[in-house]
Amino acid sequence: MGRRRNPENAWMPPHVARYKNGYQFHKHGEPTKHIAGPDASQAEFWVAYEKYLAGLVQKTFTFADLVELYFASPQYTKHIKPQTQKDYYRYNQRVLAVFGEMEPNNITSPLVQMFMDARGQQYPTAANRERTFVSIIFRWGEGSRIRVNR
Questions:
Q1: CB–CB of 44/36 below 8 Å?
Q2: Three-class SS of residue 25?
Q3: 115 and 137 fall within a common domain
């Protein structure tokens, strides 16, 4: 349990502290955000704080974000040969066109199978390689403890 706040600052919300330059919002793992100046009244502070909270919009984690994390990982950059990296990048283009804006938890086996059926009519080998790429991404995400379902 953390220590108690100074009684003068008890009115402030959690993760907000007063510094010489004003009031700052600092939550562990997130960047520090300046909320109000040092001479702001409590009412002015609360207006600025509400405005700050209204501006926070949670971006949903998409399959494209998962692929981007994989491409930046050491498993991709150090352990896969350059030609295979180029191939994966090519597969990535087609797969992201279909699944890029979806949440990884919403990509199910039937959806991947429908993609393979449509893609496999014209290019069956490409469909298999792209499915393998999707599988590699999900396997890496699970191993990296990124919350994904298959």
A1: yes
A2: strand
A3: yes
| Element of type H or E holding 35 | strand 33-36
Length reported for the chain: 150
Question: Of 62, 133, 120, whose CA–CA distance to 91 is shortest?
Answer: 133
Residue 19, beta-bridge partner list: 22
Q: Are residues 136 and 76 in the same domain?
A: yes
Task: Say if residues 47 and 23 touch (Cβ distance below 8 Å).
Answer: no
Q: How many CB atoms lie within 10 A of CB 49?
A: 17
10-residue stretch averages of pLDDT, the chain, 150 residues long: 81 89 84 88 91 78 91 90 94 94 91 94 94 94 67
Task: Give the structural domain span for 16.
Answer: 11-55
Instruction: Specify which residues 100 forms β-bridges with.
Output: none
Q: What is the value of pTM for the model shown?
A: 0.61
Q: Could you tell me if residue 6 is inside a domain?
A: no
